[in-house]
Design goal:
Residues 1-24 are annotated as: Disordered. This protein has 563 residues and is of the alpha/beta class. 32% of the residues lie in helices and 18% in strands. The chain is built from 17 helices and 21 strands. The strands form five sheets. Strands 1, 2, 3, 4, 5, 6, 7, 18 and 19 form a nine-stranded mixed sheet that branches. Strands 8-17-9-10-13 form a five-stranded parallel sheet, covered by helices on one side. A three-stranded antiparallel sheet has the order 14-15-16, with no helix packed on it. Helix 2 (44-55) runs parallel beside helix 15 (464-485) and helix 15 packs parallel to helix 17. It is globular. It binds flavin-adenine dinucleotide and NADP nicotinamide-adenine-dinucleotide phosphate. Flavin-adenine dinucleotide binds next to helix 2, helix 3 and helix 15.
Length: 563
């Protein structure tokens, strides 16, 4: 179909003028702006969706709860915040012009540099004019007679859209545990995921950090440098591999830019969206010398990819144990006090089954006299009062409290939006036993509602920038397919959803991942259903499946005309 014909086709799906009356939950009639697509969120995912859909000739409105673009990188401004995928890979690949013109200064960019990059892209592509900031989408309701959505915001806007794309982020609902007395604390409380914009100075202060996941582990060494005394409240120790961060030389940058196409190609085909391949042998097939050399090489690469040194490391406990022993040796070597080392070395889950943290001098920080590690496992936090934190053992007097307590991941943000599909079905009810999706892209009963980097996809197991691009590209192609053939909507079948959940579960159970109480499993949120929420089969494999589904005329989806 020629693009002009497609535009006519699309116009046929638009019902009425650009402002029309719609029925609301009550009997009120309200004016609604009409667009082809509402995109929720202006992080990496939502921004690319806006650009891509616009290029395709769609009218798009983006709503963003924050005052500006960036998503994760707008909010998570805590000291030490950086990416753990190399900067040169953790950026958009869709435009060679953009990737050639932007120059990363370090191997792992700071939050500040990533946010500057996102702002630069937003300006280069003139994205802001279609983004409404400081506006939260509160609900989206399907009109089954038109197969269109009525989207509502907390500022009272009502939008009539054919497509709704939830680019709301897998890690955007910060979690604050219900510590008794937290609200009575007399000092300042900071959450890593809602860090103030002004610099926070802990000089001369007694500071407590609760939480030792990636956010805690990145911030603790820097807070320790400032604070008069730092108390780290650790419930579960985590595996963390040094980042080996460093400035990128101009020669390195030039070399990467000259070979970006190849680098990206390897990333698209890889297990995790980065251009690094596992050792060709299985762990126990390698000689002890080869094994050690491979682990050393990955240790030098730094961070999270240590879990992918050998391809069987996350499947075989014996293989995993080899990696774990190597890890333990490295970590014990940098911690002075063996009792402290004992507390800092995980024993409750195989290495890599929770995301491996990426740090700079994290373990060395506990060699400082002004840093105290408190094991909340041994002496639980009982309450917080005006002056500090009481554990079962003693009271810690503090001036400031940092919560690095993570997120209600993958489903938490979506659950805050009142999404109503066919026959009044609520998405939260549909997912009450755990998220149900087909390919992580959508679910039955909710036609034309798409998810970006949500549950059922590799999402956070991959380089999330490429992952967002892949999802948006797939959605854009699906929309073009509908328009070319005169369909109004696309909706997964219930059978495809059930089969996909079963496949995700089966693949997860064949790995070691289900052995950890991770946020991938929903285990960090009290009462959340325990289900491995991601597709574990690898990024490249996942993309092949999505492409095969599309090539087969959207197998597992129903293509719908307006009834
Ligand atoms: P987000 O960036 O989370 O953006 C979602 C946006 O949607 C937010 O701005 C939010 O305000 C908005 N929103 C949500 N609900 C609504 C609503 N109802 N109405 C309006 N707006 C709404 N991944 C990697 O691959 N590599 C890394 O190195 C890496 N580092 C990370 C570091 C930190 C500290 C964190 C927290 C996560 C990190 N991640 C990393 C994961 C990261 O979340 C993704 O890489 C990526 O930034 C997600 O982009 P997104 O657009 O999907 O979501
Ligand atoms: P997280 O990994 O979930 O860590 C939260 C920490 O808070 C855990 O140590 C947890 O202990 C602790 N905690 C939660 N509730 C507690 C309670 N009631 N009492 C005591 N401790 C409690 O969250 P995160 O560190 O923010 O990281 C989440 C994800 O974001 C990462 O896995 C990663 O994907 C991404 N991220 C990436 C980077 C990066 O390096 N680029 C940085 C930050 C975040 P338990 O383990 O016992 O639950």
């Amino acid at each position: 179909m020629a693009s002009g014909d497609r535009e006519i086709q699309r116009a046929a799906h638009r019902r009425g003028p650009t402002v029309r009356r719609v029925s609301s939950g009550s009997n009120a009639r309200e004016a609604a702006a009409v667009v082809d697509a509402v995109v929720v969120g202006a992080g990496f995912g939502g921004l690319y969706a806006l650009h891509k859909f616009r290029e395709q000739g769609l009218s798009v409105r983006v709503f963003e709860a924050a005052p500006d673009v960036g998503g994760t990188w707008y909010y998570n401004r805590y000291p030490g915040a950086r990416c753990d995928v190399e900067s040169v890979d953790y950026c958009y690949s869709f435009s060679d012009d953009l990737q050639q013109r932007w120059t990363w200064s370090e191997k792992y960019a700071t939050q500040r540099e990533i946010l500057a990059y996102i702002n630069w892209v937003a300006d280069e592509l003139d994205l802001r004019r279609d983004i409404t900031f400081d506006t939260r989408v509160t609900g989206a309701a399907l009109d089954e007679s038109t197969l269109r959505w009525t989207v509502r915001t907390d500022t009272g806007e009502v939008i009539d859209a054919r497509f709704v794309v939830m680019a709301t982020g897998p890690l955007s609902a910060a979690m604050t545990p219900d510590f008794p007395g937290l609200d009575t604390f007399g000092g300042q409380i900071y959450h890593t995921a809602h860090w103030p914009h002004d610099d926070v100075d802990f000089t001369g202060k007694r500071v407590a950090v609760i939480g030792t996941g990636s956010s805690g582990i990145q911030s603790i060494p820097i807070i320790a440098e400032q604070a008069e005394h730092l108390y780290v409240f650790q419930r579960t120790p985590n595996y963390s591999v040094p980042a080996g961060n460093r400035p990128l030389s101009s020669d390195e940058v030039a070399d990467i830019k000259a070979n970006y196409a190849e680098r990206r190609h390897m990333s698209w085909r890889s297990g995790g969206g980065s251009p690094h391949v596992a050792h060709p042998k299985l762990t126990m097939e390698a000689t002890p010398e080869e094994r050690r050399a491979a682990f050393e090489k990955r240790w030098e690469l730094g961070g999270v990819l240590f879990s992918k040194t050998f391809s069987d490391q996350m499947i075989s406990l014996e293989a995993n144990e080899e990696a774990r022993k190597f890890y333990e040796e490295k970590i014990r070597a940098v911690i002075d006090d063996p009792d402290v080392a004992e507390l800092l070395i995980p024993t409750d889950h195989p290495i890599g089954t929770k995301r491996i943290c990426t740090d700079t001098n994290y373990f060395q920080t506990f060699n400082r006299a002004d840093v105290t590690l408190v094991s909340v496992r041994e002496t639980p936090i009982q309450s917080i009062d005006r002056t500090g934190i009481s554990t079962s053992e003693k009271h810690y007097y503090i001036d400031a409290l940092v919560l690095a307590t993570g997120f209600d991941a993958l489903t938490g943000t979506l659950a805050k939006v009142d999404i109503t599909g066919r026959e009044g079905q609520k998405l939260v009810d549909d997912w009450s036993a755990g998220p149900r999706t087909y390919l992580g892209l959508g679910t039955d009963g909710f036609p034309n509602l798409f998810l970006v980097s949500g549950p059922g996809a590799p999402a956070v197991l991959a380089n999330m920038v490429l992952h967002a691009e892949a999802h948006v590209n797939w959605i854009a192609e699906a929309i073009a397919y509908l328009d070319d053939r005169g369909y109004a909507a696309i909706e997964p079948t219930a059978e495809a959803v059930e089969n996909w959940i079963a496949e995700c579960a089966q693949r997860a159970e064949a790995t070691l991942f289900t052995q950890a109480n991770s946020w991938y499993m929903g285990a960090n949120v009290p009462g959340k259903p325990r289900q491995f929420m991601l597709f574990i089969g690898g990024f490249g494999t996942y993309l092949d499946i999505c492409n095969e589904v599309a090539a087969a005329g959207y197998k597992g989806f129903e293509l719908l005309k307006v009834p």
